[in-house]
Specification:
By secondary structure, the chain is α/β, with parallel strands linked by helices. It has eleven helices and 13 strands.
Length: about 325
């Protein structure tokens, strides 16, 4: 067994494709495929499930993945101790529903990059269900997702609350509803509604808020970032967690504003998730802790979800444009 065999299988698992892994590793796909086959024959198990849509870790491979990651991390530590100058680069993949991008995600990536210049961070926008699936399959290391307060936490993940906030109506500054101090659910039906597609927590929330009623005209889009751009261009209004609007460049420039929903007490939590594993790569752990530190500086109620012990970490520095302070702090309790 050779170290590069383990590196190859880790790359295929992370990228979900033999072709993409071959491109990143700068080897031919047949050579990569043969190397993986040789490792499978040596171990006596099929590590990958090969499909037309890509390659994913098999059940047997998922059981062995923590050991593979542990060996690679041990090799890195050995090389560092020996003073090797050309350490293997690592990549951490983060799936996000595009929530709190400006106030949290971008500063975290910047801070992590400063302390880990050889580790790449790949940020991928996706629906929550896709993020959960990729976390389980090893395609994502961390996931940033929204969660409605009171909903059960999925047991297969370690979940940490980063931020919480009210659902708010995101409007153009010149909208007639922007003059209101709050907007009712009925008033959402008076303008075109820019809704998140099915699969997003905010899609489910708005459907529940409107009790099945539909506006005269509605758009459907992926993620808060596109929703805010559509609002700024005058296409309608949307409903988002306040931590996805406050501090956004469009909000700071006055192109969009947000107003609370009348009589609504629901809270949306921004949760950081990772798959439960005995061995967590140091780079993943470091990025995880950076998210927690940044959220604390924003006034977030960082704490374990579902009663799990949260990561420790501290750090200084202030937020440039923090969202409104959370209205409630503490642990998330699964009901």
């Amino acid at each position: 067994m050779r170290t590069e065999q383990l590196e190859y299988i880790a790359a295929v698992t992370r990228l979900g494709s033999l072709r993409r892994a071959a491109e990143e590793l700068r080897i031919s796909q047949p050579a990569l495929s043969e190397t993986v086959r040789n490792l499978e024959r040596e171990l006596g198990v099929d590590l990958l499930e090969r499909k037309r849509s890509g390659a994913t870790m098999s059940a047997a491979g998922q059981e062995l993945l923590p050991h593979i990651v542990g060996i690679l991390d041990a090799v890195d530590r050995l090389r560092a101790a020996a003073g090797e100058q050309h350490r293997i680069r690592r990549m951490v993949r983060v799936g996000t529903v595009n929530a709190a991008t400006v106030s949290l995600l971008m500063p975290v990536v910047r801070e992590f990059r400063a302390g880990h210049p050889l580790t790449q961070v790949e940020v991928v926008g996706a629906q929550q269900s896709d993020i959960h699936r990729s976390l389980l399959e090893g395609g994502f290391d961390l996931g940033l997702v929204n969660h409605l307060e009171g909903d059960d936490m999925p047991a297969e993940f370690e979940s940490v609350e980063l931020l919480r906030g009210r659902p708010v109506v995101c409007l153009r500054a010149d909208s007639p509803l922007a003059a209101r101090t709050e907007v009712s659910a009925d008033e959402l039906l008076t303008e075109p509604l820019i809704a998140m597609r099915s699969g997003y927590v905010m899609h489910r929330y708005v459907h529940r808020l409107l009790e099945g009623r539909s506006p005269a005209f509605a758009y459907s889009t992926d993620g808060a970032e596109m929703g805010k751009l559509m609002v700024a261009e005058g296409l309608g209004l949307t409903v988002l967690p306040e931590f996805s609007v406050v501090g956004d460049p469009l909000e700071r420039q006055g192109a969009i504003v947000c107003r609370p929903l009348a009589g609504e007490r629901a809270r949306v939590l921004l949760v950081l998730r990772r798959r439960r594993a005995r061995a967590v790569p140091p780079a993943v752990r470091a990025l995880h802790d950076t998210f927690v530190r940044r959220a604390r500086r924003l006034g977030g109620g960082t704490g374990p979800a579902g009663g799990e012990d949260g990561p420790e970490g501290d750090g200084g520095g202030g937020a440039d444009h923090p969202p409104h302070p959370p209205t409630h702090k503490g642990k998330i309790r699964a009901k």
